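so my prof wants the structure for this chain in the tokens format not the other one, which i didnt know existed until like an hour ago. anyway here's the sequence
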Amino acid sequence: MLVRAVEATAFGTNCWVLATGAGEECVVVDPGFGVVDRLREVLTEHRLRPAAVLLTHGHADHVWSVTPVCRSAGTPVAVHVHPDDRYRLADPLATLDPGLRHMLAAQFGPQERWQEPEDVLDLPPAGAPAALQVAGLDLVVHHTPGHTEGSVVFAVAPEPGAGLLMSGDLLFAGSIGRTDLAGGDPVAMARSLREVLPRFDDATRVLPGHGPTTTLADERARNPFLRAVAAGQVL
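here's what i got, hopefully its the right format
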């Protein structure tokens, strides 16, 4: 499997590109601020054709480049998002405080404008994990509220040795996503960590929304938040 990361120019968001191999269709996950040019280089280098854009949640730092990425694909590309975060695509900056909006305008210039994607498909709502087949990949979608109402993770069927988990802002190396932003819920976050992560074995490679990759073995051994959840403590 071909896996590449493109780091956004704000907040260090990881935009992930996954494909079965070079010269094939691919999925683009969480295209944040300023990733368009570098993403184009990765796609050109590996002769990849985007088949879908997947969003782990609707925060601006994970979705800001979604419309130009979809439009640059040559053929119509749909955006997949959980219905509970669908409203965020109308204006991803709406829930940010004025100071942060000012900072983003200063960094990206007043010409930076949001355009909502044209083709948006709802991921399955809350309930059992759901299968999603795209670009030759067998994915499983798990609803993981806590960071936002509609946060999800995408699991990729195991490669030889280990599967992949695109964890968004549910789980990072040594940490977890914030629950103090609009739509966040520490009780829901603890429940998502407690109910979803045990479905995956220790060898699972974690591709997080921010920061370096990790494994579930490392996080179960060292992540203080996972240990707190396992002990029944409040986050």
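also thought this was worth mentioning. The chain has a mean pLDDT of 91.
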